[in-house]
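Researcher: Next entry: 5-formyltetrahydrofolate cyclo-ligase (Microbacterium kribbense).
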Amino acid sequence: MADPIDNAKRALRAELRERRQLLTEAARRDAESGITTQLNALVQATGARSVSCYLSTRTEPGTRAFVRAATERGIRVLLPITRVDGLLDWAVADPDGELVEGLLGMPEPAGDLLGPIAVGEVDLMIIPAAAVDRTGMRLGWGRGYFDKTIGSMQDGPPVYAVVYDTELVDEVPRDVHDQPVGGVVTPTRTVTLAPQRR
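Model: Predicted structure:
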């Protein structure tokens, strides 16, 4: 029997994926510029000296300029590396380092692997999302990597999801394993949605 929550998630993801694919290159460039500005301000406001982030794909709000700028300013940036067991390893970002295609076809660093617990030592987590609702519930892309990571952390750092402005919505379908985030970063604003951890 079909699960209505899974069906609702699938339908919303398909709509969001299509909307992202229709964005022009100019809109993508503007979004990346806005995301970089917002993330730089968030790092400054939180005093973070170590963050986790990710390398955006072509259709995601761009994080690559932020990652490069942060490492150049001496901020330690950890990037996720997918594992077959559904967990994430981490590697320290190197602007000149080699990138490889990860398990899911996404760009990942080829540097030395740190284990899954390495992310517990960052001051701020910046993660991808398909959408986030106003209670902080995050809709991911269905593989559960970040839900598992956040769910396994006690007293973890503040977690902010990066989405386009239209992807901060009133409500997303949720299941028992889904983990909320404390805030959202869009190209035009940063919104704290729930009390931050740590």
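Model: Note for the record: The first strand starts at residue 50 and ends at 52.
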